[in-house]
Amino acid sequence: MEREFMEFDVVIVGAGPSGLAAACRIKKQAAESGQEVSVCVVEKGSEVGAHILSGAVFEPRALEELFPDWKELGAPLNTPVTRDDIYMLTSAEKGSRIPDLFVPKTMHNEGNYIISLGNLCRWLAEQAEALEVEVYPGFAAQEALIDENGVVRGILTGDLGVDREGNPKEGFYTPGMELRAKYTLFAEGCRGHIGKQLIKRFNLDSEADAQHYGIGIKEIWDIDPAKHEQGLVVHTAGWPLDVVGTENTGGSFLYHIENNQIVVGLIIDLSYANPHLSPFDEFQRYKHHPVIKQYLEGGKRVSYGARAICKGGLNSLPKMVFPGGALIGCDLGTLNFAKIKGSHTAMKSGMLAADAVVEALKAGREGGDELTGYVDGFKASWLYDELFASRNFGPAIHKFGPLMGGAFNYIDQNWFGGKIPLTLHDTKPDYACMKKAADAQKIDYPKPDGVISFDKLSSVFISNTNHEEDQPVHLTLKDPSIPLEKNLPLYDEPAQRYCPAGVYEIVTEDNGDKRFQINAQNCVHCKTCDIKDPSQNINWVAPEGTGGPNYPNM
Q1: What contacts 355, CB < 8 A, 6 or more positions away?
Q2: How far is CA 272 from CA 5, 56, 242, 248, in A?
Q3: Number of CB atoms found within 10 A of residue 83's CB
Q4: Sign of the torsion formed by the C-alpha atoms of 288, 294, 300 and 304
């Protein structure tokens, strides 16, 4: 069909930290060199920030480069870190604080801020619009436009007003538009669905280790002012993730932000082996540990969300560029897992890509080439140095476990500054780590008490998640028979548990037959199913624009 189109010099997919930093940098650099460069940012959330979720302790290095006057401009960095407390939890009741002397240097947070990344992105969008970037929330990029020569020429946004069978709904149908560009930057966040297609199409990961992921689950609480210590950062390792039978690693965070609020969360490596494990339920019982519960008692939970993170680091980076475009931020995988921080690295990657785009446009190039300047700039930047120094952090924990891996990382980071003359590799994909259900220990999770711990449905409710129900299901199965015929007998269908939003259910009918039910309207867009399904049978694609969570301050 013939579609309407708009043309830009640059289209950016995703209004997260990397996409917005890239947009602002392009406009600033172009203005300095007297160029007119048109830039469009599309965002699938109902507003900028609606789908943004992060811890987040924020390192302002890239922000200071992008906007040296960020304080005067009112950037929402309101809570400097005042203290770091790191605990090793040895059981459901016990734990001890780790002396600073034995903490890897990367875990210290002097000079950093506790922020809402969603609110920072809202602020960045304001700066972008002031620089005359066109920002379009509520438009989901559905696929890349690739010409007959294999060059990316922009993106196609999804159709609106389509029923579950894919038919236009009378009076509601609006066909998607082509947004054509000389260069297209993909900043969709972790496991971007177009980024995944581009990696496969252009074989971008042929020389990279397997990407590795975690799932981060987070809540915001209003707490008793007497228990609040603005600027306090608490991290934990150990329980509940080292319980017998889970063979899993990860850690938690609890940050005291402004307005007598805390954010509390758990990150679980998606390399876990036990199919009976439920990341959501691990998080709920974790909150009952005395180290954490002391802050929550008497408080009220006000928000919930979840998101996958890329944690493979330098070893897992695919090729960054392809004809007509580039991957940036978590679409590329730039998070520094040794610091548990990815916002400043995402912003820097976007800025490096922006510099290469401005250079290419200034030279009169029209997008048929690769942005080699981005690759060169990356290799010469502090971003590369930082990712190189942390390249062993994740593989050490995967190979040697949290205790011996932690010891290796302490030596690597504190004694060698991340330059130990050895590079560890972890080439086994996370989905391939899962044991058969018969070979794994079942886990008995306590029932939520409705005070400290909660169920999935009440949690999804406060994530403000909403989808138009009469639309194609955006969680597609490559083979609909696999959940019941393979995953259920072999793995007790782990989708019932790894999804933190109750999207997947095994329903038993009155006659005893079972069916696999997908409650797509519950989806918080975390992408865990796309990553962890042991049969790699679930493919997450973007639903209609504005669908999904609406996070106010995540």
Answers
A1: 25, 29, 373, 374, 377
A2: 45, 24, 11, 5
A3: 12
A4: negative
Do 183 and 360 form a contact (C-beta atoms < 8 A)? yes
Confidence band for 430, pLDDT divided at 50, 70 and 90: very high
- Closest by Cα among 328, 288, 283 to 310: 328
Q: What would the pLDDT profile of 128-139 be if each residue is shown by its tens digit?
A: 999 999 999 999
pLDDT tens per residue, range 348-360: 999 999 999 999 9
Percent of the chain with pLDDT over 70: 99
| DSSP 8-state assignment for residue 415 | I
CA distance 208 to 550: 34
Residues 124, 58: contact at Cβ < 8 Å? no
pLDDT of residue 447 exceeding 70, the answer is yes
The structure tokens listed for 177 are 């538009």
Q: Distances in Å between the alpha carbon of 372 and those of 360, 367, 512?
A: 9, 12, 59
How far CA 535 is from CA of 196, 274, 355, 478, in Å, comes to 17, 15, 40, 10
523-550 residues labelled b (16+ CB within 10 A) or e (exposed): bbbbbbbbbbbbbebbbbbbbbbbbbbb
Structure tokens at 203: 């074989």
Task: Output phi, psi for 63, to 5 deg.
Answer: -60, -40
Residue 524: φ, ψ to 5°: -100, 15
Contact between residue 312 and residue 391 where contact means Cβ atoms under 8 Å apart: no
Distance from chain centroid for Cα 544? 20
Name the residue type at position 287: K
- Token pair, residue 88, equals 């090793």
* 434: DSSP letter: P
Beta-carbon neighbour count of residue 52 at 10 Å?
28
